[in-house]
Amino acid sequence: MASKLPLTVQGGAAAWGTIRGSFHSLMALLIAALMLAIIYLARDAEPPPSEEEARVAAEEVGRVNSVGRAGRKGECDLFSGRWVYDNVSYPLYKEKECKFMSDQLACEKYGRKDLSYQHWRWQPHDCDLPRFNATALLESLRNKRMVFVGDSLNRGQWVSMVCLVESAVPTDSLKTMSFHHNNSLIVFKAKEYNATIEYYWAPLLVESNSDDPVNHRVPDRIVRVQAIEEHARHWSDADILVFDTYLWWRRSKMRVLWGSFESPDGIYRDVKMPRAYEMALNTWSQWLEIHVNRSKTELFFVSMSPTHERAEEWGGVAGQNCYQETQPITREDYWGAGSDLAMMKVVETVIDDLRSRGVAVQILNITQLSEYRKEAHPSIHRKQWEPLKEEKLANPLSYADCYHWCLPGVPDVWNELLYAHIFKNWVPKLESRVEE
């Protein structure tokens, strides 16, 4: 897919040669003052990219967008497509009817009046996604475990999946929700199928001081990039594993600990991004290589979920964000600054290396398709876990959630893509079938 993404290049002032020659003192002062003014103005300037720089950036975005796509003849690229408004087939469930809906994602319940975000269908360019069949999925999960592992965005995808399937179990006594291990593990069980769809809180995948599912907002985040066993023991025997981790790594550097939190001999270092991210994913990949049952377990990694915090990036008013947005972005290949290409490259490299060692992980490349959906975030329409002060309430932009996603909504499409990969199923477009 060709990209039209403009490149922002960080730059500084141009180098200046020394002033030579002999000048009248007044002229020298004037020239010196002029030079200082130019340097001051140029200090923070960002020169426009050259044609070559723009071309390289466009190629990089296009290459990263191809991660996880079909590569064999006859396969369809499910991640390349467009959003189509469809108020007949969508949403796939009603917010009020999902008994296990999260208040963090229940935008209609918390006052959102414009519900058009629920009616958009993802349409791949060259095929159709199979219709989500909850009964078929539960049957495929009979006597099995599907576990989502990661941060709150992964939890949102898990809630979406539960809402998608729970209507196929109409009897309340045949479906349960239980909480385990200090609420780090949440289990939805469809008793008739002896199938579980679970979520495990591990926002950085490896161990950290943010692993408490409730009290994880700490001033100084610390990760043990070589430690994953404490988490992994809770999902080691799963049949389908769906991982994600990105949002919590969005910083210039991370405090890394070699040793345990309890030991006084631990070594702490500040490690820059994306190196710290790479170290953690290498630990994750090594665990999979050693412990995963390659003949039993299907592995998926969900690419970065984009944010919409800067309206000027999509042609909106500077200083605004997703608050009061009601329509998707229509510009093809739009890519926001919140999605880090270098970190996505790390994921690709680690998973390619893992594949070369005999462990297959399918990347669900949801980044580009989600980039378009600036209007689909909760914004202010969600439960606030702490009372908001008057100054916050007076400025909705200051507390608008432009990270998570309303349900029904975008994560349902992520699960439709997951469903298609689990069943290895896609449908040729009608016109293609007619031509054949």
UniProtKB/TrEMBL annotation:
Gene designation per UniProt: LOC116206858
Family: Belongs to the PC-esterase family. TBL subfamily.
Membrane topology: Single-pass membrane protein
A Gene Ontology molecular function term of the record: O-acetyltransferase activity
Keyword set includes Protein transport: no
Alphabetized InterPro entries for the sequence: TBL, TBL_C, TBL_N
Transmembrane segments: 21-42
Organism from which the protein derives: Punica granatum (Pomegranate)
Record localization: Membrane
GO cellular component: Golgi apparatus; membrane
Entry keyword tRNA-binding: no
Entry protein name: Protein trichome birefringence-like 34 isoform X1
Residues of the Trichome birefringence-like C-terminal domain: 129-420
Domain Trichome birefringence-like N-terminal residues, every copy: 75-128
Pfam families (alphabetical): PC-Esterase, PMR5N
Domain of life (superkingdom): Eukaryota
Keyword entries, A-Z: Membrane, Signal-anchor, Transmembrane, Transmembrane helix
